[in-house]
Design goal:
Length: 181
């Protein structure tokens, strides 16, 4: 791994941490807060590619696990990963990997494909890990965890569009920063 790779991985870890400065919004019916940090996962995959994107999210999760208060609201510690949000957070690693992989192999600068890649990795994969973990950890029926999580979909779709817009701007203005080519 080159120094450049390490710098980019660290940069997107820091970007995801900085997105935690926006306050979390808690919903009364589910114990997982709405945050802007999931954009970090989406951007990491779309810009850094599969391996570097996943490594940036892994580094972020490790830093949270060792106690750094990097999550929205200043949360951190290993217990977070064992709590209701844990599956969603771990999903960021796989989500960034899938987004990067799809960008590397299939999107070819087609906006529709890029949108679908971000939805698959940033929503489907993250929810695919997060909802079952939420159900088990919060001791709630899977259907209730699933239905409660649906409240996050509109906001996550806005994050997908915002991510796509940011990626397009970076591709146009700074094409050398896109590592998924």
């Amino acid at each position: 791994m080159s120094t450049k790779d390490i710098v980019y991985i660290s940069l997107f870890t820091a970007l995801t941490a900085a997105l935690g400065l926006f306050p979390a919004i808690s919903l009364p019916f589910i114990s997982v807060p709405i945050t802007t940090q999931s954009i970090g996962c989406m951007l990491a995959g779309a810009i850094l590619g599969s391996k570097r994107g996943a490594l940036s999210m892994l580094l972020f999760i490790v830093l949270v696990a060792i106690g750094l208060p990097l999550l929205a609201g200043g949360r951190g510690g290993f217990g977070i990963l064992l709590g209701p949000s844990g599956g969603f957070l771990l999903g960021w690693i796989l989500g960034a990997y899938l987004i990067g992989l799809l960008f590397e192999k299939f999107t070819k600068n087609r906006t529709t494909y890029e949108f679908l890649a971000i939805v698959l990795g940033g929503i489907i994969v993250v929810y695919g890990l997060g909802i079952p973990c939420l159900s088990v950890i919060a001791k709630m029926p899977f259907e209730k965890a699933f239905m409660g999580s649906l409240a996050f979909i509109p906001g996550d779709l806005i994050k997908v569009v915002l991510t796509l817009y940011i990626v397009k701007i970076i591709k146009k203005g700074y094409p050398h920063l896109i590592l998924t080519k």
